[in-house]
Write a structure and sequence with these properties.
The structure is a single chain. The chain is mostly helical and 140 residues long. The protein has a single domain, classed as Recoverin, domain 1. It has 6 helices and 2 strands. It has a two-stranded antiparallel ribbon. The longest helix has 22 residues. The relative contact order is 0.10.
């Protein structure tokens, strides 16, 4: 829809300006390929269903994980969110929170899931069509 497109481009502008701020942040001056990482993180963030403030809420997180085949309980989702936002009782993940998680030293569960999912995409070509049939000889 037109509204959605407008929202996304406006949204992207906002994310771009946050990326700019990270690029000039001395804390990340040592980070290799920071610009391309930020671009990649921005695309990943925009894959989530964002709420009207452009943040990831618990439903957006739930849907994203379900798309990845990782359904989580409400409690697990809340724990994942509090890990990202640093234990505060915020119920959304902002883009700043997201970048701090992806670039930070702490290994939040969500970060590990997204990194793992990203690596899997690059290495193995997705086979289209039905999965290979298993035979008895395939069993361990």
């Amino acid at each position: 829809t037109v509204k959605h497109l407008f929202f996304s481009s406006q949204q992207e502008e906002k994310l771009n300006s946050i990326n700019e701020a990270f690029l000039s942040d001395p804390q990340y001056a040592e980070e290799e390929d920071l610009a391309s990482k930020l671009e990649m993180f921005k695309k990943k963030y925009m894959e989530f269903d964002l709420n009207d403030k452009g943040e990831i809420d618990i439903m957006g997180l739930k849907r994203m994980l379900e798309k990845l085949g990782l359904a989580k309980t409400h409690l697990e989702l809340k724990k994942m969110m509090s890990e990202v936002v640093g234990g505060t009782s915020k119920d959304t993940i902002s883009y700043n929170d997201f970048l701090n998680m992806m670039l930070g030293k702490r290994n939040a569960i969500l970060k590990l899931i997204l990194m793992f999912e990203g690596m899997g995409k690059e290495q193995e070509p997705k086979s289209t069509g039905p999965p290979q049939r298993k035979t008895f000889s395939d069993l361990p």
